[in-house]
Design brief:
400 residues, alpha/beta, seven-stranded mixed beta sheet, globular, binds pyridoxal-5'-phosphate
Amino acid sequence: MSAFNSAALLATRASASDEGAIIRMSQKTRDLRAQGRDVVSLTLGEPDFETPLFIQEAATDAMRAGFTHYSPVAGIPELRNAVAHKLKTENGLAYSASQIVVANGVKQAIANAVFSLIEPGDEVILLAPFWVSYELTVKLAGGTPRILSAGVEQEFKVSAQQVADALTPQTKLLILNSPNNPTGAVWTKGELAALAKVVSKHPRLMVLSDDMYEYIVFDGEASSFGALPGMLERTITVNGFSKSFAMTGWRLGYAAAPEPIARSMARMQSAFTAGANSFVQRAAIAALEAPRDDVARMRESYRRRRDIVAAGLAEIPGIKLSPIPATFYAFPDVSSFLGRRTEAATVDALCDWLLDVHGVTTVPGSAFGDDRCIRLSFAASERDIKTGLDRLKAGFAALK
Ligand code: PLP
């Protein structure tokens, strides 16, 4: 065999790992199931609904009409118009169509934004618990993540004061995700206004507002950061179709940003992937132009599941839970169980043990920058949720 070692050629950045814990837990779940074990998975942040039929039909109609070629890098004009209209009428964001960049999923929209702004020496404020991808993307761009944390006692919302205290002349970007994955927290208008006040005092700070879960809100109201007075020019808004329209596999999202940043985001995208899937963009127009009936139907279903999960977790002594006004995630604080026994030495060990011994898959909070909590996704059937909760109850009872 040749002694050539291709692994030694890998760039340093290649060792950065995205969603490590989620992928590891999912793989372990598959392995155990392959061995015949009965495992309930509350792992993936993926709607268990089919994409609404009218959206599927719009895609097949476009395909049959020959709409199967390369599309403009920033998206087809009709979709950019439809997105600008949606952002204006639903979110109070006055972006023009030329400020919209359609991407292959919100993940890519975020990468386009971060790579447009961030270079070595720049600091990016992340509000933990945060969605896994942010930290990796910032690091890949050579930026320095500054992680600020809020626990269950703060309902997982980092305060404007914490942000003010962390700002330095190097801070260039703050990533905000409300409603939040993994906690379900929603920043109130007042909390956002306090944050806007801090942002406006910094000479070069932008906010990336990830509004991905805006439609999956049960209590209260989600507001878009860019709609606050004076904040539009400071904000890159990203949103997409994966969660709200049950379109995870279609890979479509978008960003809206001040013109120079939007142009740069399109250039980034042009370098890596070019324009998003052409016929999916037609389907996205159909999704945006239709009434939000399917969105509401799915939200009501998530609401029922949220009630079941919140009630079930409340019955487990030792778990601390804050309200879950939105999303399809619960993020219980399990710190009172940690460190006393090897099964639960850390949240990672605890999640492994819950899976190995009790047959329920969750994700350790460490994946989201919090080592006191675990994440449960309730984008699962009510039956699985109930069985999963029973197993969690049995597991935590055994640890007491
Ligand atoms: N933003 C948040 C907060 C998410 O939770 C996710 C997916 O889990 C994404 C973005 C990625 O969305 P997309 O499927 O459009 O890439």
